[in-house]
Amino acid sequence: MDSMDILQVNQEITIKNVEQFKVNLESLLESTQKRYLILDLEKVTYLNSSALGCIADTAMKAKKVNKELVVAGIKPPIDEIFHIVKFEFFMELFKSKEEAVEYFSSK
Amino acid sequence: MELLKESTFKPIIYILFIIYLSSEILTLYFIGEIYHFLDKVGIYSQLGKVAILIFIYLLLRFPLGFILNDQYKKLNQYSKDMKISYERYQTLFRNPLNIVYIVNMDGVVVDINSATTTILGYLPKEVIGQHFNMFLESQRKDIRNKFHNENLQIDSESFIAKERIKHKNGKIIDMEVLSIPYTDEKGDIVGLIGVAKDITKESNYSKKLEDLSQRYKCLFEKNPHYACMFNKDGFVEEVNNKMIEDFGTNMIGSHYIDLLSKNDLHRALHDFESVRNGEVIQGIYQVVDKKGMHLKVDLKSIPIFVNNHLEGKFVIARDITEKDRLEQVINSDLDLAKVLQESVLSKPIRDKNIHISGHYIAAKHIGGDMYAWYKLDENRFGIIILDVMGHGVSSALISMSIRSLLEGIITKTKEPELVIQRLNQHMYQLFTKNIDSIRFFTALYLVVDTQKKEIEYVNAGHPSGIVISKNNILLESTCTPLGILENQKPKVKKLPYESGSKILLFTDGFLEYYHDLSINEAILEVASTYKGNQHLTSEELVLEALKNGEVTKGQDDVSFVKIEL
């Protein structure tokens, strides 16, 4: 756990708060020395396309600085969105935070 | 205060008793002398002597008795009055909330009550005999000064002053002190009776009130927007500097309807009634400034209630004249952009084996959705629907940028996967690589071969399209949206179709109207709506599908494409 940092989101991400979501993700990436980053969306019931863009952007930027961002809490109803956008092609997706922690722990 | 004690009067009573006794002895002495005198003058009858002596005794005794009795009664009443006064003084002195004290003219404390212990931490015996300077933060030589430097004169001789008094522990306590001159029987001032009340809480409240008042004053007077106080009848009572600057100095006393444009009067009267009923009202109004210029203001009227009674209303108004003008310019530009964007959407194709039509509704003038179709050869048609992430102008510009490439890429590239790869390359190079921030779009591209009755498609992160025939077939996503990865490896899927089949494509904005359903459930619901309304055009179908829906997440662009085979 020492090398991991977790950002938990507790509400749906819409046009109203997507900018704050972007800031929080940037902060997660830049303000921590920890290598493994978990975005926990377990309590999120909706996220718009801009939020998906922020996640993809952060995941790509993390790779450039030798870090890794994964998404946890991929459960209904948002699992359908992630199934469509196929983010698993470039980042790891987990059903729960525990699975994400276990993934990083085994590294 | 010893003079006031009952014991003081006992010697006086003894003296009166001695006087009375002496008078009795003297009377008896005189009666004895008169008895001998009667013998000398030849009155020998005992009965006569007794009658004469009783008469003389009564003559001598009664006036003196009356005088002494009257004096005794007066003295007794005086004693009772003094006793009552003393009890009252003691009651006043026992006051546990206020310090009651007496100082002489040299400023030495003569007496002080026990409240000094609870309020100042001193026992009365520690204070009596000490100079009152021991309590004062700023030293004073004698109490005579006290009668010259007070804050408030409550009559010719008594004063109320605020003093900073030292507690035994050194802490300063704010006190309000009532000082009454203490006079002797001649009326000369011999000291001072003081009643001191702890007003620390009141002082704190007073300071907070003063601070609040100062803040309010700054907020009101220096507010960059118009701020104005009206009384409950709608007359101006107070205005801030900004209002004076733009509306002149004659506003105080004028009525609010005098400030408004005539067109707004009816609404203003209605709104004013609402404010009087306790509502906060916000609205856009036109007002006329001192130069006669019409300004557009966004104002908020807030009722002011004091003790549940309406005192008036507070109005704060922001001048939005310039902002409104700029918005009109922008909206005009956006309306033009909307016309341009809609003009590049493909027009319906009605071929013998295929009919293609679409409908688009932008969320805010313009958006990032786009659809297009091209006839690739005699029997093949390339059809694409795409959705740029985000909303508004930036998404629309990206969408138009892609649109400019579509015809060249689609008509010159046979394989669907190459079309998707080239679009991905364009998006990645132009945005993700250059501005170091991912911008992507989802797309569903399909090629329909009407001769082979075959569909080839690539779905890049886009909501599934649906083929409606005997069985509904979903055209599901096969790769990530375009612009995220530098090297996209799209997977092409191929499926046959039967004549009479229909294909429906849409963007997620359309599906958001079915917010109670999952994405795939919503797609099937759209198919169901279509089956019941096959005679409708694309536009009519969209409106039919949307009329019962409600967007809850913030409105997105809506795009819909119908392909009839």
Automatic annotation (TrEMBL), chain B:
Pfam families xrefs: PAS, PAS_9, SpoIIE
Domain named PAC: residues: 159-211
Designated name of the protein: SpoIIE family protein phosphatase
CDD domains listed in its UniProt record: PAS (cd00130)
Record-annotated membrane-spanning stretches: 12-38, 50-68
Keywords: Hydrolase, Membrane, Transmembrane, Transmembrane helix
Family annotation (InterPro entries): Bact_Sigma-Reg, PAC, PAS, PAS-assoc_C, PAS-like_dom_sf, PAS_fold, PPM-type-like_dom_sf, PPM-type_phosphatase-like_dom
SMART domains: PAC, PAS, PP2C_SIG
SUPFAM superfamilies associated with the record: PP2C-like, PYP-like sensor domain (PAS domain)
Record has Transmembrane helix as a keyword: yes
Ranges where the PAS domain occurs: 85-155
